[in-house]
Write the structure tokens for this entry.
Amino acid sequence: MLTRVILAALVAGLLAGVFATAAQSVRVIPLILQAEAYEEGVSHAETEDEVWAPEEGLQRTFFTLLSNLVTGVAFALILTAIILILDQPVSLRHGALWGAGGFAVFVLAPNFGLPPELPGMASGDLTARQAWWIATVLLTGGGLLIFAFKDSVSWMGAGVMLIVAPHVYGAPQNPAGESAVPAELAAEFAIATVVTSALFWLFLGAVLGQLLSRVIEGRSSEPG
């Protein structure tokens, strides 16, 4: 059965990766291309080594799809592991709820401190940003699990404290300075990224829940 469960997670992750690529092509990728035009205008005025980047067209689409496939599979396996460890029911509806939780943990909470950034925007120390992101994900996930499985006031208070702790501490701030990217473009990108991520997580959770339910129902219907 474990093999079938892993296969279901892989299929859900791959489908979600394809879905994410299609969703990003609507607005996210066009906004990135606009920002890169501003970035190139600045870099051409300065002397610096060029960094390799995929060419426009099929090459860029291929690497975007590859990245989304890997991301989709990784998150599908994480969700599957949590569902199995907690012995939770599986269905399309339950999966969508887990997907919504994944969106809150991996996208919504970190974005309060570290909003999505376009090429050409100033950013702070990478190590500090990664550490804050990881801490926020872990604490938010822990807080939401407390909300889901504990109902006492003390536990609920602990869950709230876990969720707000990284935001009270504060995310690493970007260095002051003028960005080559207009503020309106950056705001539009942040909104488009959040919406696309929400669709990705809901799609991933729903498909995963549906596939896992088929695996488990098929197992329970086997004789012996």
Remarks:
- DSSP finds seven helices and no strands in the chain.
- The chain has a mean pLDDT of 88.
